[in-house]
Design goal:
- With 324 residues, this protein is an alpha+beta fold.
- It has helices at residues 20-33, 41-50, 63-71, 97-110, 176-192, 207-225, 231-260, 265-271, 278-286, 317-323, and strands at residues 78-81, 84-88, 129-131, 139-145, 148-154, 160-161, 166-167, 173-175, 289-294, 310-314.
- The chain contains 10 helices and 10 strands.
- The strands form 4 sheets. Strands 3-9-10 form a 3-stranded mixed sheet, with helices on one face.
- The protein is globular.
C-alpha cells in the first residue's frame, strides 16, 4: 500500500486517496476476520504479503501493522475532532462504520483483557449476570482446563462493586454454557408469547426532525468550505449537531426494536448468532431480562445444576413489586 493509503491514518484528509486495489485488500482482510470460521490477523498479514503489497515504508507487513490499519478510524470513514466522534467522512472509505466496529469487536476479543468498563461485549449475556452474593457484575471469559476449552462466568475478587466501595467476593465460578442455555429458553419463550393487543398509540415520526438536522449540518459544511466559518466554531457546532442527530436516531432505532418483538422477524434476528448481530440479540435480551443472579454450586459437581442456582429477574418485575 502506498504512503497515502489508510495505513497512514494519522494524516488528515488522506483517506480519499485509497485506490481500488488497496480497498480490495482491506475488504479481503475484513471477510477473513469475519468469516464463520474466522481467520487471524496473521492470516491477513500472510495474504497481503503473498499478493505483493507493502507497507508505506516499502517493507513487509507485520501483524501489528495490519492491526493498525484496521484500528484506524479512517478505515471505517469515522471522523474525530479532539477525541470526539463527529460523523462520517465525506470521502469513500474501505469499510463502512458498521464493518469497522465489527472488526474492533474481533480484535478486542483477541487482545489482552481491557481495563474495567472498556471494550465491547463479546457474549450475549455479558453485563446481565450478577454474583448472587455480592451483586457485582460477573465476567465471562474463555478458559482451558485439563485440555478442555470452555467459557466460564465468574465473580472477580479484584473488581470493585457497590460504587467502588468494595471488591467482588470471588465465590462464584460457573460454566457459562449451562447458564446461556437456560436464559435462551427464557428469551425464546418470551418471543413465542403473544403480546396483548393494545390500541396503537400515535407513532413518533422523527423523520422530519432528522432531516432538519441533516440539512443544518449540510448548510454549515457549505459555509465552512466557503471560508465563512472558523474551524473551531465549525467543529464544535458539528459535534453538537451530531450529538442531537445521534439521539434522534437512537430513539428511532429503539422504537423499531420495540416493534420487532411483536413481529415474526424478531425470531430471525435472534437465531442469527453471527458476531455482526450480537448487539441486536442483546437488545432483544434487554427487552426480556433485567438481571440474572448466579449462585455457586460447589466444586467437582457431576450432576446438572438446579434451576434455583440462578435467579432471573424479568424486565419490569422490580417496578411491579414496588407498586404492590
Amino acid at each position: 500500500m502506498r504512503e497515502e493509503s489508510v495505513s497512514s491514518a494519522s494524516k488528515p484528509g488522506r483517506i480519499q486517496e485509497v485506490d481500488e486495489q488497496e480497498r480490495e485488500l482491506i475488504l479481503a482482510g475484513y471477510r477473513m476476520l469475519m468469516d464463520r470460521q474466522p481467520k487471524t490477523p496473521g492470516d491477513v498479514t500472510r495474504l497481503w504479503n503473498a499478493l505483493g503489497s507493502t507497507t508505506p515504508q516499502g517493507g513487509v507487513w507485520t501483524i501489528n501493522a495490519v492491526k493498525r490499519v484496521f484500528r484506524a478510524e479512517r478505515t471505517g470513514g469515522v471522523v474525530t475532532h479532539k477525541g470526539h466522534d463527529i460523523g462520517d467522512s465525506v470521502y469513500g472509505a474501505p469499510l463502512t462504520r458498521e464493518q469497522w466496529e465489527n472488526v474492533q469487536t474481533i480484535l478486542d476479543g483477541r487482545a489482552t483483557p481491557a481495563a474495567q468498563g472498556q471494550g465491547k461485549r463479546k457474549h450475549v449475556y455479558s453485563g446481565f449476570l450478577r454474583c448472587g452474593y455480592c451483586k457485582s457484575i460477573m465476567r465471562v471469559q474463555w478458559v482451558t482446563d485439563q485440555g478442555r476449552t470452555f467459557r466460564r462466568a465468574f465473580c472477580h475478587s479484584g473488581q470493585r462493586t457497590g460504587g467502588g466501595q468494595r471488591l467482588g467476593c470471588g465465590k462464584v465460578s460457573r460454566k457459562y454454557e449451562w447458564i446461556e442455555e437456560r436464559l435462551n429458553e427464557v428469551v425464546e419463550a418470551a418471543l413465542d408469547r403473544p403480546k396483548p393487543q393494545q390500541p396503537p398509540g400515535p407513532a413518533e415520526d422523527l423523520t422530519g426532525a432528522i432531516r432538519l438536522l441533516e440539512d443544518r449540518i449540510h448548510a454549515m459544511r457549505v459555509m465552512w468550505k466557503a471560508g465563512r466559518m472558523e474551524d473551531e466554531d465549525y467543529f464544535e457546532s458539528l459535534a453538537h449537531l451530531r450529538g442531537e442527530l445521534q439521539t434522534l436516531r437512537t430513539r428511532e432505532t429503539a422504537a423499531a426494536v420495540r416493534h420487532s418483538r411483536a413481529e415474526p422477524d424478531a425470531w430471525t434476528v435472534w437465531r442469527d448468532d453471527s458476531i455482526e448481530n450480537l448487539e441486536r440479540r442483546r437488545t432483544i435480551v434487554a427487552s426480556v431480562i433485567d438481571k440474572v443472579e448466579v449462585f455457586s454450586i460447589g466444586r467437582g459437581r457431576r450432576k446438572p445444576p438446579e434451576m434455583n442456582s440462578i435467579k432471573i429477574t424479568p424486565v419490569g418485575a422490580e417496578d411491579q413489586s414496588r407498586s404492590d
